[in-house]
Design a protein that fits this description.
Order of helices and strands: EEEHEHE
CATH class: Alpha Beta
Organism: Methanohalophilus halophilus
Oligomer: single chain
InterPro entries: Thioredoxin-like_sf, Thioredoxin_CS, Thioredoxin_domain
Strand order of the largest sheet: 3-5-4
Strand content: 15-25%
Structural class: alpha/beta
Radius of gyration: 12 Å
CATH architecture: 3-Layer(aba) Sandwich
Number of strands: 5
Protein name: Thioredoxin domain-containing protein
Helix content: 25-40%
Number of domains: 1
Shape: flat
């Protein structure tokens, strides 16, 4: 599986732990470390040309701010 990403927010991972970012943009090398954490993780696979992805993105961002202390929000851009 390959994850091609454009990093638009700074990714802060220390000791395999995501640090206070509403949305993390994962790479293939960091995704598994994020998903294996104790906190629940919600991964959004985003394709910029997909109308459904674009429709859901604002809600994903809103919830990422609302629940950033209890859920990891990860975006994978294809």
């Amino acid at each position: 599986m390959c994850f091609k990403l454009e990093k638009t927010l700074s990714l802060s991972i220390q000791n395999n732990k995501v640090m206070a970012q509403p949305i993390v943009y994962a790479t293939d090398s960091t995704l598994m470390g994020i998903v294996k954490q104790k906190e629940p993780t919600l991964v959004m696979v985003f394709l910029p040309t997909c109308p459904h992805c674009r429709a859901i993105e604002p809600y994903f961002r809103e919830y990422s701010k609302q629940y950033e202390d209890s859920v990891n929000f990860v975006m994978e851009i294809s």
